[in-house]
Amino acid sequence: MKKIISLLAMIISILFMSSCTENENPDIPYIPIVPPLVEPTIKELVSEKLNELSLIEKVAQMIQAERAYITPDQVEQYGIGSILSGGGSHPTSYIDSADVWYDMYADYQESALKSTSEIPIIYGVDAIHGNNNLYGATIFPHNIGLGAANNSDLMYEIGKATAEEMLVTGITWTFAPAVSVVSDISWGRTYEGLSENPLIHQNLVKHMIFGLQENGVSATAKHFVADGGTIGGIDQGNVTVNEQTIRDIHLSPYVQAINAGVDTIMISYSAIDDIKMHGSHYWITEVLKEELEFEGFIISDWNAIHQLPGSYDEQIVTAVNAGVDMLMEPSDWESALSSLYQAVISDNISVERIDDAVSRILTVKYNRGLIDEPFARLDPIDYLYSSIHQDIARQAVRESLVLLKNNEEALPLNKDELIYIAGPASNNVGYLCGGWTTYWLGNTEADIGVGISISQAFSNVLESSSTQLVSSWTEASTVVVVLSEIPYSEGAGDNDQLTLTQGLAHPDNDQALLLAKQAHDAGKKVIGILISGRPLVLGDDINSFDAFVAAWLPGSEGGTGIADVIFGDYDFTGKLSYTWPRDLSQVGFTSTRSDYEESIVMYPFGYGLSYLS
Ligand code: GLC
After folding, report:
1. Is it true that the peptide bond before 412 is cis, omega within 30 degrees of 0?
2. One-letter-per-residue 3-state SS of 302-333
3. Which atom of ligand 1 is nearest to the CA of 222?
4. Cα 404 from Cα 102, distance rounded (Å)
5. What's the whole-model pTM score?
6. Catalytic sites, residue numbers
7. 313 CA → ligand 1 middle, Å
8. Is the domain of 83 the same as that of 184?
9. Dihedral through CA 352, CA 302, CA 212, CA 95, nearest 10?
């Protein structure tokens, strides 16, 4: 179509030129005035395309299927607008290479271009801390650590690196960043949140979005709105705080995201005053689209509309009329397609609503270059787990670490000390990465194909001083104990027993804490490192440690980044973006509350020691 417009413009300019009379004065060279070729705007292209589509072709653009439930032939037959890989949904296996991913993507894309609408698909993945489904990709610290680092330039670099490691597979859409403001760390998605306090989001959200979108992939601000504000931190639960609190605390990151031009926003499973967000015309259309002038498109969450009242047909009508533009219906995509089409035919959904949704979707596809270059990709050799990306991740680890205790300058360690290291996360890269790594619920393998463990990284440092880790704590002068949570995601991570030995704490923590006490009582220097998706009540166990570090979920470069700081090559700079409760009664007591009192909590929002402090 573009070529036709350009050709027309050319013909017009030739006709215009021929109408010009030759210059009367032969001495002055005749230079014809050629009007510039006027490229159509995206808005014009979208409008042009929309007018070409039939109703069923329009409706098909609003459907997102999961790769396991749709074939390329079906994409060609139905002209589906989008496909996703859910957490851990690989083309054939978890060790699929970038080429295998790209071949899958290209197959779907070729089929989409052969559909009657000829519109490319937009393919989405949860690349939330690197392209974490892809084997061999750099795994960055989860957002809880990035909130502690609170470095906007670093957020951009991580977004850029993530975009690059997505584009090696051709995929151009990530369901990230989560902009959740977490009011209760019982929530299983606490680690996906940057902080309990939107002050941190204000400094970071837009830079992650810029990093992703300026480097070729669409970002998603999620989950709209107040996903982290449910009673008791219950995932997909109910929010009962008043609207002003929702606006001040939970809506403000979306203002950042919209100002940054975020392409998509995902709706939360949760409810406000028992009204499920996916059915809220007020919040989705009146607030997001009208008041905040969001111009991208709204996507529902995985089967989320099934939680709305009524039949499936009624759920489709409610969600789309509320303002949802694309339906993430992984396995029910055919039902969604026919139900949505029937809803328009029977006037339960207006054509104007469909046109609004499809225009938004097409605008994103044009803006991200999908229409012009549906098969673009980057070379994995240049970008996948590149040394540049490893360095960015390692810096992020260093800056995410928070030094909670350092009695008598127990840290930094010398590089020739006699060190014994133990604990469940001391020799396991999978635990360092947490949920949404390789698989939806995380990868518990010690070796995930990239990165080295904390003990391996420590060995490498000691080797440079011709020293090595000792094999018994009694021989050591220093004992390092690495405690852990087991990996989890979403509701599977909901937990109100937030201590070092209950709930989702790693079962080997008990043994590790016993060792720490024995070593401490024997006069050894004892260093604690906690690998976790949230603060955990430390209780009396903290007394067994001379120094204690919160390392969150540092990712594939966790070993090297932690070693850099523990041995003093770098200082601690991380500051808590979540309040650390003294006991379980303080869970939910956050710095956004008017009655917040720093002196009564274990460690307050913004706390963090350094070697110089
Ligand atoms: C999940 C999550 C959402 C994710 C989506 C696709 O249920 O709630 O964050 O993007 O499904 O995997």
Report:
1. yes
2. CCHHHHCCCCHHHHHHHHHHHCCCEEECCCCH
3. 9
4. 44
5. 0.94
6. 301, 490
7. 22
8. yes
9. -140
**Together in a domain, 313 and 423:** no
Domain end call among 354, 382, 410: 382
Kindly report the protein residue whose alpha carbon is nearest to atom 11 of ligand 1: 302
Ligand 1 centroid–CA 191 distance in Å is 14
Per-residue pLDDT tens over the stretch 73-127: 999 999 999 999 999 999 999 999 999 999 999 999 999 999 999 999 999 999 9
Cβ neighbours, 10 Å, residue 482: 28
Q: How many helical (H) and strand (E) elements, i.e. helices and strands, does the chain have?
A: 20, 16
Q: Are residues 273 and 355 in the same domain?
A: yes
In whole angstroms, what separates CA 471 from the centre of its chain?
39
In a shared domain, residues 126 and 216: yes
Nearest-atom number in ligand 1 for the CA of 85 is 12
- Is 608 part of any domain? no
Distance CA 268, CA 504 (A): 24
CA 302 to ligand 1 centroid distance, Å: 6
- Domain of 512 in residue numbering reads as 401-600
397-412, pLDDT tens digit by residue? 999 999 999 999 999 9
**Residue written as token pair 């010009």:** 20
Tell me: do 143 and 280 sit in the same domain. yes
CATH number at residue 237: 3.20.20.300
